[in-house]
Specification:
The chain is an alpha+beta fold. 36% of the residues lie in helices and 27% in strands. α1 packs across α3. The two termini are 16 Å apart.
């Protein structure tokens, strides 16, 4: 999980390098992984009930052909965060992954609301 210091650095990077107003809603993307897709499908339904929008469930190409296959669930939510609220959200989503027996909460990314794709910082 990102430490609070990591989140602080992310906010400083956004303030310095992105033309986004941190006091307005941004599109926050959150990622979960699992070796099979079914638990992620169930997680997508539960997260949708909490206001997240399921974006994609996919199996990424892996650099190592011997690596075990993995599935990724991407959900997003437009919201305003501070360092403290994003740090807390990451903790909540990590707990959600554990409670739902997913392999991991794999972190987040952010972009402007209405962007066709969410760039990673």
């Amino acid at each position: 999980m990102m430490t609070k210091e990591d989140v602080t650095e992310l906010f400083a990077n956004i303030a310095e390098n992105a033309p986004w107003d941190l006091s307005q809603p941004l599109l926050w993307g959150y990622y979960f992984t699992n070796p099979t897709s079914e638990p992620l499908e169930q997680a997508a339904t539960l997260l949708a009930l909490q206001g997240y929008r399921p974006v994609e469930l996919y199996q990424p190409e892996l650099d190592d052909p011997a690596a075990a296959p993995v599935w990724v669930l991407h959900v997003e939510k437009a919201e305003v965060h501070s360092v403290d609220s994003l740090h807390a959200r990451n903790g909540e989503l990590m707990a959600f992954a554990q409670e739902n027996q997913l392999a991991s909460y794999d972190g987040m990314d952010v972009g402007p609301v209405g962007a066709p794709e969410v760039p990673q910082l």
